[in-house]
């Protein structure tokens, strides 16, 4: 869940007056939303970016906000747990959440703001194709990386997924070590074995 701060809290972290914070917001230097009551609210993630531009140390209580966040979307609970357990073993600093269907995936993506989504295509109700379309239809999620996965291995399925905006595609069943490498590549973090951009498979035209 995202955390929001008022202008007085932001002023405290930046060691300035609330008036300075209001001016930053008015000038567009600091992103903020406006409540129904007319009060400005700043997301912690936006404050972190702003603090870094000012070369101000990020408070320790915001440490989790800087960790890579990943969402696993798969209706098979045991399979999803298996992926999560293996990735948490490999990457101790990743924050991972799970959801079982496409409807909740949309809500989770909006609230959790994952940097990477591992998305199963074949789910009851709202399938992975629709989730992918939803994510790419909203510019606020333009930076969200998506690894689609499915037992559907036909070239036309892979092409459709990538055309819809997925960053990568893995077929089921897959090699866990390969998945770890792809996760590391898309999050820009380290794993035991490096994966290069040329190694990311793409369907032939």
Task: Please describe what this structure looks like.
The chain is α/β, with parallel strands linked by helices and 205 residues long. The protein folds into two domains: 4-64, Orthogonal Bundle (Multidrug-efflux Transporter Regulator, Chain: A, Domain 2); 67-199, Response regulator (Rossmann fold, 3-Layer(aba) Sandwich), CATH 3.40.50. It is built from nine helices and eight strands. The protein has a five-stranded parallel β-sheet, with helices on both faces. Strands 1-3-2 form a three-stranded antiparallel β-sheet. α1 (7-14) packs across α2 (18-26) and α6 packs parallel to α7. The radius of gyration is 19 Å and the shape is elongated. It starts with a strand and ends in an 18-residue tail after the last helix.
Percent helix: 40-55%
CATH homologous superfamily designation of the largest domain? Response regulator
Count of distinct structural domains: 2
Strand content: 15-25%
Q: What sort of overall outline do the alpha carbons produce when their principal axes are compared?
A: elongated
Strand order of the largest sheet: 5-4-6-7-8
Which sheet architecture does the biggest sheet show?
Answer: 5 strands, parallel
Low-pLDDT runs: 194-205
Rounded mean pLDDT is 85
Q: Write the H/E string, N to C.
A: EHHEEHHEHEHEHEHEH
């Amino acid at each position: 869940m995202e955390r929001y701060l008022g202008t007085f809290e932001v002023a405290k972290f930046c060691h300035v007056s609330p008036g300075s914070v209001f001016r930053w917001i008015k000038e567009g230097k600091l992103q903020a939303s406006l409540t129904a009551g007319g009060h400005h609210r700043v997301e912690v993630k936006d404050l972190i970016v702003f603090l870094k531009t000012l070369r101000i140390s990020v408070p320790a209580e915001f440490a989790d906000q800087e960790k890579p966040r990943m969402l696993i979307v798969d209706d098979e609970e045991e399979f999803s747990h298996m992926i999560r357990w293996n990735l948490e073993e490999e990457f101790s600093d990743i924050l991972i959440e799970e959801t079982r269907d496409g409807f909740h995936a949309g809500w989770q993506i909006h609230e959790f703001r994952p940097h990477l989504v591992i998305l199963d295509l074949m789910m009851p109700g709202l399938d992975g194709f629709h989730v992918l379309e939803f994510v790419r239809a909203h510019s606020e999620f333009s930076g969200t990386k998506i690894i689609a996965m499915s037992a559907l291995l036909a070239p036309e399925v892979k092409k459709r997924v990538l055309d819809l905006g997925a960053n990568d595609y893995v077929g089921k069943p897959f090699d866990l070590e390969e998945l770890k490498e792809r996760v590391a590549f898309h999050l820009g973090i380290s794993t035991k074995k490096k994966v290069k951009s040329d190694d990311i498979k793409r369907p032939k035209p």
